[in-house]
Write a structure and sequence with these properties.
With about 325 residues, the chain is α+β, with helices and mostly antiparallel strands. It is built from eleven helices and 13 strands.
Amino acid sequence: MSQSNAKSMFTALPGAARIEVDDIEIEDNEENLKVSPYLYHDGMYFKCKGRKDVPFVLLNSILKENLPSLYFDLLCILSDYTYLNSFLLRKRLAYLKNHEKMSTTGMRRTLNAMRQKGLILEYELFHKGEDQSIKGSPFIYAVSPLGYKYLKKSRPYKFIKNEEQSIPFECERVLRILSENQFSILFEEQYEPCGRVTYCDFSDFVYKNSGIRMLYGIKLPSNDVIALFALSIRQDPQWSSRYLMLLRNLRTFMEKHQIKNASIMVIVESEWFSMACERVRCCENDLKNLDVFYATDVSFVTENDVFNRLIDVLPANDYSKRSIFRLNIRNSEQ
């Protein structure tokens, strides 16, 4: 995808756009930290409810029913994002339909009905807590094989992914996808109306060639356009090798397609984890020149702007310090 000749990147924007924020020192105490809803735990496993087969009789029965248009809207959203929880479904639906967010109980009732009809799958993650009791996650939803066939049969003119193209459910991978989707949904809601999003690319081509699902074009106040790649890292046992692999894949992809003006936002579980990620990256000579900054998935919902608490990790003391900044790029006049 071609880009302009802009020289500015996210971590090197003019002072009018980039604003340093005083970082309040927080003691390294879990009680003082807001915990990510997409935190990886050792020994995680999942359970799934819903039909994974597609009986011909059931498909015909569904196609003959006059299903609510809401079902179709939710299936299309899930098809776009692969995995979502109820909160993200309600946010995206409200934005697309330009109305108030659906109630939690209303959405839950609708999703239950869709699962019972075989249109969606419902997943739940489990892990052992510190007290050794089993903890469950909020439900995670995906389009079922029957749901994909229903979409194709009922609206053949609309592009719908094949169920074979969907990403297999694995705990760490799905947590990454959820945190990426959270950023994407909130980012588009905040920046599309003010004309700052020039494109969003969720194509299979980018994913298959780099392992990165999200590529955006962002128009700066100077009218230059830069590419923003967003990826998430969860702190599982293989996180460092996965992180380096994704960055190398992305570097190769950008070189091949001559994408020179690009920034990479890495979505992490905590600010402390961002420093560990940067320490690993900067030990690799071939990755040092990438324009990388970090953000926690918690900050996207606790701040009123997804770019209000971004993290630059500083090389001081073996990458154990960070600088917090925000971007003021909504308005054309700076």
